[in-house]
Amino acid sequence: MAPDSPRTALPPDTGPTPSDDALPRIAWIGLGIMGSPMAENLVKAGYPVTGFTLERQKLDRLAANGGTAAASVAEAVRDADVVITMVPASPQVEAVAYGEDGILANVRRGALLIDMSSITPQTSVDLAAAAAPYGIDVLDAPVSGGEAGAVEAALSIMVGGERAVFDRARPILEALGRTIVLCGAHGSGQTVKAANQLIVAVNIQAAAEAVVFLEKSGVDLPAALDVLGGGLAGSTVLARKRANFLDRDFTPGFRVDLHHKDMGIVTDAARAVGAALPAGSLVAGLVASLRAQGDGGLDHSALLRGVERLSGSWAGG
Ligand code: NAD
Fold first, then answer.
1. What value does the mean pLDDT take over residues 245-260?
2. Residue nearest atom 9 in ligand 1 by C-alpha distance
């Protein structure tokens, strides 16, 4: 939850500001599967990047790739012009944003906060409102494209917030992705991301069901996936998850735990506006089942394991 009122002591208005030709200093919070390659792409684009995350080895990786490792959120954001967060879910965004050691209490006025995590739209709305009294502009800017999209700087970035702030952030976002769209007011980026996760989950489930059906029917699976990929059934999911399905390699990628979180976000948000999601609700249950069976740490392509269990063809392991 956002704090009820701003802290009494605002940060100084006079922190270091970039000279006209210097690129903004970036603080990056959350160097996981997505955050590490994204932060490194900013380093490659010439931005000074200072990062903080919970795993020591991820901090070492940033330092080895030209960034600077900080010992805390407060230390990372102190001299930053732009703070980017890429953490798992709403509670972690709130943990790094609020409180004495958080971003709002330690970043200088006039800084820009871009949250790229996938969280509830309401958390984004609350964060923007909580940051406003401190003179900190906020955008929600969740992404799609997976680890490969992060590595290749080819992400789709769906943004919520004000147009002028979006324009300010655009050069940074262009170093991270290819399709960058302002979707509306605060929280809109998260709403679009929730829709994205609905489409991806249902798509993976359908592809997984097709894989089991094809195998049980004795069809040459790689050949079948080749021809399916060239027709209307083709999709980014089918192309990107093909090897996971064929090799039964469920190394994340995108963890089932995170997709479970996202299915909760989209089903709650849809209920709030009166939109029925019959297929989405069913797949949300299947994702929850996968997690309950101990597969939460696997890539979401492991929905195939759930279909195999239901079909009596899972070899176990
Ligand atoms: P991850 O679990 O690999 O990384 C999360 C990182 O956040 C970790 O390094 C952790 O140390 C850090 N973190 C957590 N709490 C922290 C705190 N209090 N202070 C500092 N750091 C903290 O997750 P990920 O796969 O990189 O996903 C990050 C976000 O991006 C999630 O919201 C996810 O839903 C979204 N997303 C992921 C993918 C994907 O394919 N992995 C794709 C699109 C969007």
1. 97
2. 32
Q: Which residue has the higher pLDDT, 145 or 4?
A: 145
Q: Mean pLDDT across the stretch 149-173?
A: 98
CA distances from 4 to 7, 46, 302 (A): 9, 38, 41
Tell me the Ramachandran region of residue 84: left when phi exceeds 0, alpha when psi lies from -120 to 50, beta otherwise.
beta
Ligand 1 atom nearest to 155, measured from its CA: 43
241 is catalytic: no
- Give me the catalytic one of 58, 193, 241, 261: 193
Q: Express each pLDDT in 265-296 by its tens digit.
A: 999 999 999 999 999 999 999 999 999 999 99
Could you tell which of 29, 31, 33, 119 is best to mutate to test the pocket of ligand 1, judged by most ligand atoms within 8 Å of the CB? 33
Fold of 191-308: N-(1-d-carboxylethyl)-l-norvaline Dehydrogenase; domain 2 (1.10.1040)
Q: Map out the domains of the chain as residue ranges.
A: 26-184, 191-308
Ligand 1 mean position, distance from CA 62 (Å): 15
Count of CA atoms in the C-beta half-sphere (13 A) of 243:
4
Q: What stretch of H or E contains 68? A: strand 68-69
Share of the chain above pLDDT 90, in %: 92
Question: Same CATH fold, 191-308 and 26-184?
Answer: no
CATH code, 26-184? 3.40.50.720
